[in-house]
């Protein structure tokens, strides 16, 4: 076993003004060491040009005794230089001298997760959800770059404020270095997977380490302990995980998925990102703070009030004719989504494991013409009762909720691989995430003082205290969605793949990171949406034999039906945006996007599938 690269905390002492080591525009005090590792010392330093605090890792070349030690150092630099994530410690500069190598990195001021356990004890499950969501986002970029850490553990996940930062890549491998270190056993035994004990490392060995890390944070101990590495490896492979305290069933499942001995069945980082335990902490719509409720006076006079039975009539528009879809809240193991409701006259109760879920069904009592008239009259009443400030809030909230909906569309496309035409899925996944960024960019311009949404009395409005809350929400969403777009964007930059993507000249016209909103974007989007919808419909048609309409769809088919449902709704929303391109308030009114974004799915039936196929025919997709 190699000597493990660890940081040991060293007491900090005041920085004497005359004892600073200078490396170009960076400097540090020799007495301001904050950690020590194999052949290296880490100092708290600063960028003398900007006064930014940095960490400076000084590696003594005399301590690098073998070619393997040099290879480990090269791998660390290679790995960090390829990564740029909020949740990975950033590498700023590398300097070489005759005696030392200097790594200038981001300074994390709040210690590491190991110290968090030592100082604060076991952690609350709720606080770990947000923390691990960040870690997963960082690891996604590592996977994208083909980087395996090989030594993930609490001590190697730093904290900058409350933001987790994956650090210490001294044992990491990249695609260029992975094959150069055969038969080298590295890492910390308590966090190593059964495969790592046999010198087999991959994404799945890091996933195991994350599962052990979460377990330790929640219970103050690792899942397995033993007197030797051999005994430890045997216990890992034979003794089931036990939980010495209470945590939710969702959290237990998250840990179980990380600690499956068979690495082929162990969760991937994408599966963990979409796991229900993390989706519970997903950014929610702005409610309870005066925004949503201000648009609802009473059920009689306000068409936007949520009815007690949670059914909504939501008019959407295609290019030729106005259609209407009925949405309702529903729930499943996937998370918070929406889907088309079967219109029936009776209510029914559907049982699912662990909980029963009520699905309300109702018949349509009005004709389409009557609904359109009621819609116009209700919209007029809405205009009369809203003042300018509330109307502006409503417009902004609609844009945010549209982004929330698209984020779920992206997650579903990643989860259900029913689009198989070469590069069609990649094109659509890119367009969905670019659409999110187009809307977020528009909202960011509002924050910067540009009235891109045509808000009423803009200069007065930005003085409103409610506006400040909305700005904070926009900033929070922007960080989350920007990270996801960058991940998708970078995944499509392989030259060979990119060349095949841009063969489609229409797609090539929007295949960039320019987030200015043009109507042409939605025309191209809907063209690609049509292709994806037709392909999924064709696949499902060949697999589904219609039975009792109340019977649940098979699990392996249901995912395709859910995805189809979402893409149809997206098609309608994109069409509505084109019709309301110069009037974002009309989009907010007609789409009822908040209700759509808040929907919860139930298990789908054959009847749902029939309704979805009928909707495709109605929209002439």
Automatic annotation (TrEMBL):
One of its GO terms (molecular function) is ATP binding. Residues 353-385 are annotated as: Disordered. ATP binds at residue 57. It holds the Pfam family Pkinase. Residues 368-378 have a biased composition (Polar residues). Residues 28-278 form the Protein kinase domain. This is Protein kinase domain-containing protein. It comes from Paramecium sonneborni.
């Amino acid at each position: 076993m190699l000597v493990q690269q660890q940081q040991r905390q060293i007491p900090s002492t005041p920085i004497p003004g005359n004892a600073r080591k200078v490396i170009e525009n960076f400097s540090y005090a020799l007495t301001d060491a904050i950690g020590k590792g194999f052949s290296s010392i880490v100092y708290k330093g600063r960028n003398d040009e900007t006064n930014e605090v940095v960490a400076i890792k000084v590696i003594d070349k005399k301590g690098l005794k073998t070619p393997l030690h040099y290879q480990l150092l090269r791998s660390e630099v290679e790995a960090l230089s390829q990564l740029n994530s909020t949740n990975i410690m950033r590498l700023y500069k590398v300097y070489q001298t005759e005696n030392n190598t200097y790594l200038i990195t981001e300074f994390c001021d709040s210690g590491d997760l190991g110290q968090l356990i030592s100082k604060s004890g076991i952690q609350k499950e709720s606080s770990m959800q947000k923390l691990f969501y960040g870690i997963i986002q960082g690891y996604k970029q590592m996977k994208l770059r083909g980087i395996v850490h090989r030594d993930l553990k609490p001590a190697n996940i730093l904290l900058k404020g409350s933001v987790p930062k994956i650090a210490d890549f001294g044992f990491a491998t990249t695609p260029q270095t992975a094959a150069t270190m055969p038969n080298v056993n590295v890492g910390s035994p308590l966090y190593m997977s059964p495969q790592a004990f046999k010198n087999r490392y991959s994404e799945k060995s890091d996933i195991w380490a994350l599962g052990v890390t979460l377990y330790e944070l929640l219970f103050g101990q690792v899942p397995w302990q033993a007197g030797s590495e051999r005994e430890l490896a045997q216990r890992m492979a034979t003794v089931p995980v036990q939980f010495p305290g209470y945590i939710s069933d969702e959290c237990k499942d998250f840990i179980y998925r990380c600690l499956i001995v068979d690495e082929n069945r162990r969760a991937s980082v994408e599966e963990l990102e979409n796991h229900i335990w993390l989706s519970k902490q997903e950014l929610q719509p702005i409610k309870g703070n005066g925004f949503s409720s201000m648009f609802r006076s009473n059920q009689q006079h306000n068409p936007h009030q949520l009815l007690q039975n949670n059914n909504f009539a939501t008019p959407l528009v295609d290019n030729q004719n106005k259609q209407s879809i009925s949405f309702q809240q529903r729930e499943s193991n996937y998370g918070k989504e929406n889907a088309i409701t079967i219109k029936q006259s009776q209510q029914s109760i559907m049982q699912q494991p662990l909980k029963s879920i009520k699905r309300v069904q109702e018949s349509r009592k009005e004709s389409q013409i009557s609904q359109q008239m009621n819609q116009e009259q209700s919209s007029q009443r809405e205009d009369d009762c809203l003042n300018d400030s509330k109307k502006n809030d409503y417009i902004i909230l609609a844009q945010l909720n549209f982004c929330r909906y698209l984020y779920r569309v992206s997650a579903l496309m990643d989860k259900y691989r029913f689009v198989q035409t070469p590069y069609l899925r990649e094109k659509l996944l890119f367009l969905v995430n670019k659409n999110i960024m187009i809307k977020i960019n528009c909202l960011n311009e509002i924050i910067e003082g540009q009235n891109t949404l045509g808000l009423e009395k803009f200069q007065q409005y930005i003085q409103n205290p409610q506006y400040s809350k909305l700005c904070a929400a926009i900033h929070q969403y922007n960080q989350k969605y920007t990270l996801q777009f960058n991940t998708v964007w970078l995944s499509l930059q392989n030259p060979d793949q990119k060349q095949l993507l841009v063969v489609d000249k229409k797609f090539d016209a929007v295949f960039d990171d320019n987030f200015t909103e043009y109507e042409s974007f939605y025309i191209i989007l809907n063209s690609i949406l049509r292709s994806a919808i037709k392909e999924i419909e064709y696949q499902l048609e060949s697999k589904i034999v219609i039975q009792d309409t109340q019977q649940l769809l098979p699990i392996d088919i249901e995912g395709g039906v859910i995805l189809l449902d979402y893409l149809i709704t997206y098609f309608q929303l994109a069409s509505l945006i084109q019709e309301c391109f110069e009037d974002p308030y009309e989009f907010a009114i007609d789409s009822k996007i908040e209700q759509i974004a808040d929907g919860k799915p139930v298990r789908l039936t054959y009847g749902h599938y029939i309704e979805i196929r009928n909707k495709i025919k109605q929209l002439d997709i």
